[in-house]
C-alpha cells in the first residue's frame, strides 16, 4: 500500500537559533543539546560502535552535541527515541532514525523532525525507504534554491511511501542492519589481508636485500 508521508508521520521544521547573545556552544552552559549537521555519522566514522549498538549508518553521533538555550517553547523541536531527522538542506538529503533516549535535545533548522505513527510505520523502515535512490531522486528533483538547496516541507509531506505490513517493515530494517554488519566485517577482513600481504612482501624484500 502506498501512503502520503503526512498520513504516516508528523513533520516539524527544526529550531533556528537567532540569539547572538547566547550562541550555540561546545560548553555545557545551555539548557538543551542541539543536533547539527556535524553530528551525523554519514561516512561511517564510528561504524563499529554504531553497529555494536544495533544501529545503522547514517547515524546521529550524540557524544559531541553542543548546547544552546532555545527561545520560546522548545517542545516542538525536541528529539527522542522513535523520531527521524531528515536533512533537508545541502547537496545530500537523507533520513536518520533516532535509536537512543535523548534528554533535553532539539534539532537545528537544517533538519525536519519526523514523528512516525508507529501503528502504521516503523522509524527504521521509514528512514530506509527515504534513503532509497528512487525516493532520493524524487526529493532532489523538488529542491529549491541556488546555492543552498532545500527540500520544501510540502515536498516531503506529499511524498508517496510504500507501507507494507509491520512484520515486513521489521524484516527489511533487520536485513539492512545485517547487510551493513556483513559489509563492515568484509572491509575489515580485506584490510587485514592487505596488511598481511604487505608484511610478507616487505619481509621478503628485506631478506633479498640482505643477501646482496
Task: Tag the structure with descriptive keywords.
4-stranded antiparallel β-sheet, 212 residues, 6 helices, Adenine-n6-DNA-methyltransferase TaqI, Chain A, domain 2, 36% helix
How would you explain this protein's 3D organization?
Helices cover 36% and strands 18% of the residues. It has one domain: DNA methylase specificity domains (Adenine-n6-DNA-methyltransferase TaqI, Chain A, domain 2, Alpha-Beta Complex), CATH 3.90.220.20. The model has no long low-confidence stretch (mean pLDDT 84). The strands form 4 sheets. A 4-stranded antiparallel beta sheet has the order 2-10-7-8. Strands 6-3-9 form a 3-stranded mixed beta sheet, with no helix packed on it. With 212 residues, it is α+β, with helices and mostly antiparallel strands. It contains 6 helices and 11 strands. The radius of gyration is 21 Å and the shape is globular. A hairpin with a 6-residue loop joins strand 7 and strand 8.
Summarize the structure.
By secondary structure, the protein is of the alpha+beta class. Helix content is 36%, strand content 18%.
The CATH C-level class name: Alpha Beta
Here the CATH topology equals: Adenine-n6-DNA-methyltransferase TaqI, Chain A, domain 2
Which structural class fits the helix and strand makeup? alpha+beta
Order of helices and strands: EHEEEHEEEEEEHHHEH
List segments where confidence is low: pLDDT < 50 over at least 5 consecutive residues.
Answer: none
Q: Into which percentage range does the β-strand content fall?
A: 15-25%
Counted by DSSP, the helix tally is 6
- The CA-CA distance between the termini, in Å, is 74 Å
Spatial order of the strands forming the largest sheet: 2-10-7-8
- The total domain count is 1
| Helix proportion range | 25-40%
Amino acid at each position: 500500500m502506498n501512503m502520503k508521508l503526512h498520513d504516516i508521520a508528523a513533520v516539524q521544521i527544526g529550531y533556528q537559533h537567532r540569539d547572538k547573545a547566547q550562541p550555540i556552544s561546545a560548553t555545557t552552559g545551555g539548557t538543551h543539546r542541539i543536533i547539527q549537521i556535524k553530528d551525523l555519522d554519514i561516512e561511517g566514522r564510528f561504524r563499529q560502535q554504531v553497529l555494536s549498538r544495533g544501529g545503522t549508518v547514517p547515524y546521529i553521533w550524540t557524544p559531541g552535541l553542543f548546547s544552546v538555550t532555545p527561545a520560546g517553547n522548545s517542545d516542538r523541536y525536541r528529539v527522542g527515541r522513535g523520531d527521524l531527522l531528515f536533512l533537508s538542506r545541502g547537496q545530500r538529503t537523507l533520513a536518520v532514525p533516532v535509536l537512543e533516549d535523548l534528554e533535553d535535545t532539539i534539532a537545528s533548522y537544517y533538519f525536519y523532525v519526523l514523528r512516525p505513527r508507529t501503528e502504521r510505520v516503523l522509524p527504521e523502515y521509514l528512514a530506509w525507504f527515504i534513503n532509497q535512490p528512487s525516493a532520493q531522486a524524487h526529493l532532489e528533483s523538488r529542491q529549491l534554491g541556488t546555492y543552498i538547496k532545500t527540500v520544501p516541507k510540502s515536498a516531503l509531506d506529499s511524498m508517496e511511501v510504500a507501507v507494507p505490513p509491520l512484520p515486513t517493515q521489521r524484516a527489511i530494517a533487520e536485513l539492512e542492519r545485517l547487510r551493513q554488519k556483513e559489509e563492515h566485517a568484509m572491509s575489515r577482513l580485506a584490510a587485514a589481508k592487505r596488511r598481511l600481504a604487505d608484511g610478507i612482501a616487505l619481509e621478503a624484500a628485506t631478506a633479498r636485500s640482505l643477501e646482496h
